[in-house]
Predict the 3D structure of the following.
Amino acid sequence: MDGELQRTVGRNIRRIRLAGDLSQEDLADRIGHHRTYVGSVERGERDLSLRSLERLATSMGVDPVALLAPIVPPAPGDPVGPGDPDGPGGPDGPGDPDTPDLDGPAPS
């Protein structure tokens, strides 16, 4: 599929950024870009050079290869840690008290 690697890199950047409690603005400041640049990278809208990929990885303290690896969903029964932004205890999930549960009943 065309652009799948871009989307994978973007999802990994977002996942790692959130796990490190960084905002898009914080990450943008670290790499010398505007917040909107980070957002477009996370959405898979930008072609990154290898140098940019390396700079992003270094600024987040991860190996650049970690940004390229496909996200493997946990197997059924595997625990999902609280630092996993895609898990139930991760940020912006149903367990987050600051985020409304959009799938649940409407408040009365």
